[in-house]
Structure formats: structure tokens, C-alpha cells
Prior knowledge:
Membrane topology: Multi-pass membrane protein
Radius of gyration: 34 Å
Low-confidence stretches: 60-75, 163-236, 492-497
Helix content: 55-70%
Keywords: Cell membrane, Coiled coil, Membrane, Phosphate transport, Transmembrane, Transmembrane helix, Transport
Number of strands: 9
Largest sheet: 3 strands, mixed
Pfam families: EXS, SPX
Region (Disordered): 161-198
Oligomer: single chain
Shape: globular
Mean pLDDT: 77
Family: Belongs to the SYG1 (TC 2.A.94) family.
Structural class: mainly alpha
Amino acid sequence: MKFGKIFKKQMVPEWVEAYMDYNGLKRILKQIHSYNHSKLTRVASRVSQQAEALHRSFSGLSFHHRNSEHGGDIEDQVITVDTEVHQQDDSHRNLYKTKFLKKSEEGSEFEESFFKKLDENLNKVNRFYREKVEEVLEEAALLDKQMDALIALRVKVKKPDASSNTNLEKHPSDKVVVDETSDDSTIRTPGSANRDMVHGIDRTSIPEEEASHIVTDIVPVSRTSGNEEEDGSGDKQDLHEILERVKMNEALESPLSTLKGFFGDSKEPVSKKGLKKAEEQLRLVFSEFYQKLRRLKEYSFMNLLAFSKIMKKYEKIASRNASRNYMKTVDNSLIGSSDEVNRLLERVEVTFVKHFSSGNRREGMKCLRPKVKRERHRVTFFSGFFSGCSIALIVAVVFKIESRKLMEKDYGTAYMANIIPLYSLFGYIILHMLMYSANIYFWRLYRVNYTFIFGFKQGTELGYREVFLVSTGLAVLAFICFLLNLQFDMDWKMKDHNTLPEVIPLGLVTIVLFILFCPLNIIYRSSRVFFLRSLLHCICAPLYEVTLPDFFLADHLTSQVQAIRSLELFICYYGLGEYMQRQEKCQRHGVYNVFYFVVGVIPYWLRFLQCVRRLCEEKDSIHGYNALKYMLTIIAVIIRTAFELKKGRNWMIMALVSSGVAICMNTFWDIVIDWGLLRRHSKNPYLRDKLLVPHKSVYFAAMVVDVILRVAWMQLVLEFNLKSLHKVAVSTIISCLEIVRRGMWSFFRLENEHLNNVGKYRAFKSVPHPFHYYDDDETDDKDD
């Protein structure tokens, strides 16, 4: 595989714009190569006329021979790299500028533009790397304080009487010294070889039960000389003082914490349960911080490798030995010489293994470096096998219906109208999973970082093959049950046992629910738990904090109204004994009709509550408008459902008006807000500045299809006279079209979210810290 493809594959998707523009530099090298080739062609035509001129011209163009004899002199004469020092925010910033010394030669403007672009990329990479290193150093300092609080809390919970008496003298070498005079702002920690530290804190020699607070001083070099003895007088602090300066961060993430926060602050004494929660939260913080450090290290390595590769290509094309001189500058720059990330990686590993893995390095590293999920051949095999079986079963079902001429008999239409709603539930689920599988395939194809956006744990996320396998497996199971239903109903031998076929759909639902809630580690347990947790957050809205997976799932539930009503039908059909008469008379029950209204509104109501919660937390008016959109949709669904049950011209007019308003609002929100399209002054007219799909026509087609499928929602209100299709079939087809529309919406919604992350270089999720220092509030007040 060529390096350009490897380089692109290894990029952090959200940092793409911060990487070296390898392909752009290659394009300039192609221009240099084309010019040199045309130059040689012109010389060769002249040489063919005069043999003596041929010798002189050829000797003048023998760059390889000339460079091999005087390689060092030629290299010194090709380029010189100047370093300009800029003062910014009490620190030094180096900017590199290369001077090309062969401007007098013909065609030198191409090489000059090459080095100009190369300098721009080097400065860009160094600037971005510096910003990220400063971020991780600040975060490391915060983790210091978090670890101090955790150790103090452990001592208090395990030995309550020891917290007020335990103290420890801080060793002078525990100071973290920041050298302000250095361009790289390097950190020097004396005696750090045998320490368990994140940012200079010595914890390895302290028993965890007797640990006490160690304050890490971050002081400039200019302030450290001559003051160490004076500072040593205040180096003793007991754990009671630490805990007085710290409080637990009570994030409103659960229903109980939300209710407590709503009705007032209720402080509870710290217990083992609270300690365990803090440990788990800090464990996640360390894990995410470690992944950030690893990505930053990979970023440095891949860019250094890209600079080396592009300079070798330049040497080969231009026949100039400038690589050694320029790479020396690259190696001496921040990205080539900084070692802060490597040191932080080592310190985080030691700290994590000791305090979160009970000293077991193997288990600790397994948490910090989860294995990348490998594609299994058996998944592909069974996906194809189940797909073939599904197609064969579809053919068998059609053949069975046609061979018995079921639709031509009197009871045929009534029978199909009775059985289709029961099995359509599985059809909706299968179609939704197939759309999700297709979305994953295209997200990966266009490098949309969906695993980060959804917050999947590395190594547990499902690929499109796994999702396709589950959907085809469920399809095989559903078609087998449907075929058995037809066989038993049509077989004269089973006439005396006519209730048996009616129980088959109930058995299928039981199997699906058992697999979904199965606690055993089978059939992608981690993904099932993730789905159930998000579903619980949706159902309990607004008591849970709203995250992207939660409102993304709630949006998808709004497209599965018919599937949810099918579940209601199962409850009525089997709970009230309708299956014994093989007649669906649920609409004659008043309770069923009431819940028919409620079920149709529930998904939109949950989404409305999520918007209200986000409006209260984030104070962003966009969530208020979004809540208004869902309220209009709720009104439209209620009026439309009333028309469906009661009929009447007045209800029809009200349903048309309310549905039309809701469709206009929802369509505008889909295209403009969720997809970020229809920007008149963007680089791509009526689209947006950045597009991942190379063909612009795809976006215009998607907008047209979205409008058409939104309008199709009004089909049942208009009640077109479709004699060839039963009303149940029409409802099923429209519901399937809505699922297809939702799948298309999902791709562009996550594409827009990914591009927003790219614009902000947001590649890692923000995990809240378990502890909060009152000193931070005072500092913020002073800053204000």
C-alpha cells in the first residue's frame, strides 16, 4: 500500500486539517517532474541535430553524477532554513522559513513554491501540536488534584479516625518545574525515575491506606532558586483540610440526582458507594486521557514520517540533496524534539496500574489499550448464508400463497389483514437494522467517526457486517415462523388445533425479547446493554442527562410509531383472547383506542422532553425551537389519529392542515439544521462549505427524496382510492418508507456532526471529573 493511503488511514478524522498536506505537496512535485521532463525533451531534440552539443548538454544535465561527487557542497547551496522567534502569551513560538538558493535556474518557481508550502505545513503542524501539548499538560495538572482528592477520600472512608491525624511531609523533589525560558516549555521533575506520578506527584512509596495530600507546586525556574527551604515550612497538610476544600461533583445524570437538584441541594455523607462511583469516574477520565496522549503521539510520528517521505520524493524528482538539511530542522522543531507526551504516557500507566488495577499491569494495560476489533470471516459467511435463506423463504411464502390461491378466497383478505400487522413488527425492525448497517458502511467509507460520536467503547462497536448478520438472522427466523403459520392454517390436519398457529407470533416476540434482555455474554452483549441503556434514558426523559445517542435513538423511535403500535396490538390480541377467534377486534375496545392515541404520541413527547431539558441546561434557544417542532408534530399526530378512528370531513381538513404545518417544519429542520445544507453563500452553493461525499448531486437528490417521503406521511389522511392494496398494506408500505427516510437522515446528520467536530478539532469525549475544588471557584471569580 502506498504511503499516501496509509497516512490518510492513520489520521484522526477530526484532526484531518491539522495534518501535513501530503497530497498537496505531491501535486507540486508532479509539476516539477513534468517541467523537468519537458525540459529534457527540448534538450534532446536539440542534441539530435549536433553531436558535439549533445555531449555538452548531457554533461550539464547529469545531476546525479555531479551530486555524488560534491553532495555536501550542493546540499549546502540548495536551501537554507531560517528560524523566526515570535513572542506570544509569555512564551516563544518558532516559525520556519526556507530560502531556495537556485532561483536563477529555469523552472525554479515550482521548487520555490514547494518549499513555501512545506514551511506552511511544518509551522501548522508545530502550532497544532503545541496547542494540544499545552492542553494535556493542563489536564495532567487537574488529574493531579483529582488523585489527591481520591486518595484522601479513600483514607476517610476506610479509616475515618485517621483522616484528621494523618499527614506527610512533602519531599522537595515533588515540585514540578516549568522552564519558561525554553521554547518547548519542558517539564523537569527531579528524581522522577522511581515515582508513580501523573504530573510530578510521588505516590509509590506511600501506602494507600495512609496516604495524605501532596501539593504539587508548578513554579517557574526563576522562582525556585533559594526559596525551597522557606517553602518547606508549610509542606505538611492533613487529609481533613483537603476534604474541606473538595466536594463531589453531583452531575444530574440519573433520575434521583435530577430530582434532588430540582428540589434543592441535599448533601449526603461520603460512603463506600460514593467512593466507588468516584473511582469509576476517574478511571474513565484516565482512560480517555491516555487515549488522547496516544493519538497525539501517533500524530507526531505520522507527520514526521510524512515530512521524511516527501523530502525523499523531492530528492528523487529534482535531483537535489536537500533532505538532510530540512529534516534536521524538522527534528529540532517542537514536534520532533518534544518528549512531554511520552513521559505523560509512562506516568499515567504507572498511576493507573497502581491505583485502578491493584498493581496488576496486565489488567491495567488491557483497560488502557483495548484490543482493536478484528473482522471475522465467519460473520461474513453467515451473513451471506442467512441472506440466501431469507430470499429462499420469501420465494417459498409467495409460492405458498399463490399455490393455495389464498387471496382469491373469501377469507383470504381478512386473514392477511389479521396476520400482517403481527409480523410487520419484525419487518420494521429488520428494515431499520439494514438501514443502520448501510449507514455504518458509508460512515466508514467517508471516514465519519461514528464510534466517537456515539461514544462506543473501543473494541465493542458493531461493524456493518455484524449488524447485517443480526438483521438477516432475524429475517430468517421471522420468515420461518410466517411460513409455519401459513402451513398450519392451510393444512386440513390442523383444523382441530387452530389456536396453535396463532401462538407462533407470540413465541417469536418472546424469543426476540429474551435475546435482547439476556444477561449472558452472547450475541453482542455490550451493544445490547448500550442500546437498553439509551432506551431507558429516552423513556425516563427528562430525568437523565441528554446525550447524542439518547436523542438520536429518540428520533429513530419517532419513525417506528407503527412498530410500537404493533406491540400494543400484540398485548390486545393475546391479552384479551382475540387470537382464539382469529379476528382482530381490538379497535372495538375503548381502552385500546385510548392507548392507540398515546402510543402514537409517546416518541414525539419523549423527544419534546429531551429538548426541554437541554434548553434548561444549555440555555440555547435552538432547543426551544426544536421543542416547538415536536409539539406541532404531536398535535398533528393526535388529530390524524382521531381522523383515522372517527373519520369525517372536518377531521380530515384539520388533519391536512396540522400535518402540512408539521411536515414543513420538520422538512426545514432536517435539511437546514440537522444536515446543515441550503447555505446560499457557502463554497458549494446551496449546500455547505465542507462535503464528505464527492458528488454534490447526492445532496440535492437527498433533499428531494426527504421532501417526497415526508409528504408520503399524509397518504393515510388523503385516503387515495388504491383498490389493489389493502389499507393495512398501504400503512405498512408508508411506514417502511419512513424508516428508509430516517436511515438516509441518519447518514447526513452524523456527517454534519462529524464536520462540526472536525472544525473544532474535537476528537475525544469530555468526561466530567468526580471532584471539585472550591479554590477553582475563587480563581474563576478573580478572573472575572
